[in-house]
Write a structure and sequence with these properties.
It contains eleven helices and 13 strands. It is α+β, with helices and mostly antiparallel strands. The protein folds into two domains: 161 residues, 3-Layer(aba) Sandwich (Aminopeptidase); 143 residues, Aminopeptidase, CATH 3.40.630.30. A hairpin with a 2-residue loop joins strand 3 and strand 4. The protein is elongated. It starts with a strand and ends with a strand. The model has no long low-confidence stretch (mean pLDDT 95).
Length: 337
Amino acid sequence: MQFTLHKDFSEINETEWNTLVEQSITNVPFLRQEYLSGWWQTRGGGEWQNAQLILISARDENRLVGIAPLFLSEHDGQRALMLLGSIEISDYLDFIVRSDDLSRFVSALIDFLASSLADHWHGFDLYNLPDSSPTLAALKADSAQRGWAYHEEIYHPSLYIPLSGDFEAYLAGVEKKQRHEIRRKMRRAEESNRGVRWYIVHNSQDINTEIDSFISLMEHDAQKQEFLTPAMREQISNVIRTANQHGWLWLAFLEVDGQKAAAMFCFDYNNKLWGYNSGVNRDFMDVSPGWVLLAYILQWASENNRTEFDLMRGDEEYKYRFGAIKRFVMRAKLTRA
């Protein structure tokens, strides 16, 4: 493998990059070039003030076989190499590499970093690796061979709802009391005579208006309002525009009395829906707009043959009420000997 340290995302062809993501051990929207390059522009909505881009590609006979999307920063008491997208707003991260190339890619990557960056870093601190990622085993094995310290821990639960193409079959799998509650709230909203309707935004020509509406709904939550710093607003707006431009935006609004009462910002990617963030207008809580919209989304996803609704990081109670199953994202920390 021939490794190259890049100064800019433009030095790796976007089509090549995204094709490799689609064939990679972890095929998620957070690893696409357009997502990570946008994340880097705002440093994750201001999460990182001092960071150095360490973007590395690996080729074998001129074929792109691996990408290590990294940055270097002070973190947790050491000068660490971290995955672009870390930590708070990118739910799943990993190296971009095919399964057959993973082991030799990891070993050769560490050799390359040790020689090219010399003493500028003390180790890796990798967040949001899916618990199913073979990268964890590869890093552990390579660390043992080098005599490096390796630590692995659960970072966050991450929940998902498997779908079979039949909404009634999905509901049948939900605990009985909650199944009745979902149906009751949907029926109550539909029979309220308040013009309840919902719609999906994708490939919109007026995406900025929809972005403003979505962020306004987020601001009804005090914690989200605090989270929405100017840099974070820019980051979220850019992600929505990017997803819209590249065809994987799925943004849904629920209207009540002609006003937007709830919204959920999703990615429609790899035949799954990925629930990224949401907002609810507290003035319409009598019709349970968040619950009703989520039920409509699950119905749509079932009827349109999406295999899964990924609710992503966080174990909020409502996710379990909708029948979500728990998995985890991990943190893997390697410290040089």
